[in-house]
Amino acid sequence: MAHKIAVxxxxxxxxxxxxxxxxxxxxAGVELxxxxxxxxxxxxxxxxxxxxxxxxxxxxxxxAILLGAVGTxxxxxxxxxxxxxxxxxxxxxxxVNQRPFVGTAPGHDEAHxxxxxxxxxxxxxxxxxxxxxxxxPNEVATQGSVNxxxxxxxxxxxxxxxAQTRHRKHxxxxxxxxxxxxxxDLWQRTxxxxxxxxxxxxxxxxxxxxxxxxxxxxxxxxxxxxxxNLFGDILTDLGGAVSGGIGLASSANLNPxxxxxxxxxxxxxxxxxxxxxxxxxxxxxxxxAALMLDFLGESDAAxxxxxxxxxxxxxxxxxxxxxxxxxxxx
Length: 330
Ligand code: IPM
Ligand code: MN
Prior knowledge:
The chain is of the alpha/beta class. Helix content is 40%, strand content 21%. It starts with a strand and ends with a helix. Manganese (II) ion is lined by residues 233, 237.
């Protein structure tokens, strides 16, 4: 049966890279039944829709969502990001953001292979807080971070389960327990309790600032990294930068309980400066599609696509897509 995929090309380079991802999946012989959803900056400017509850309900009927990128200079920062991307993460309960990093960091000889599991529905992203006396010298802004035992535990549990499928079986918690003592204590205790259920799995803890050094200087120490929403956001850009560049970084926003569709997107943004010029590297979108195929039980096609992406070279968006598609067909 064909997989029913909702495609949200989105803004900037999003539609271009997404088209290549679909081309490659079809070349791999995967049967897809795709529906385009025109959402993003252009749609918002035209008729005000970012992501209505009706559209969200339509999305629930799909097996998965493939997203290009969101955000455009024509709309104030955050409007589309929160209204579309974060709304899907929250409303579809996509509580794991899985971001794999395979590559050779600058100054290293051997490739590293680790994956960051970023909590995706809590932390500072929930928008708790507010502003008082705006625009006055006495303005007050607060921005809270929400951490629930349930939310932290399900994310950490996912990280440990993932580690069971990898040969090193090692999980590192990254946080800032020395300063964010309330949230840090919840994360650390939950981590220790879950870890006790996996006695064969190695564990470590790094403060997030130290992790930034290790990502660059010693990425080989990592296998599975689990961390909160904001630390994960920042660390995964760094992960991309040390793994061949952000043009290769893929991600899966997962609802592991499968109560609805999961969503797959490159880590990179909409890059409006190069949009529509056939210049963007589509590899991150193609690798995100491979993560989608893994989740849909098409691991054979996913593996073939991943190896076809190795050294796919440079060139235009469509050239790189064609190269990968041709290799997948062989
Ligand atoms: C990401 C992005 C988003 C985030 C933005 C666009 C809201 O940076 O997926 O990493 O902060 O999560
Ligand atoms: Mn980010």
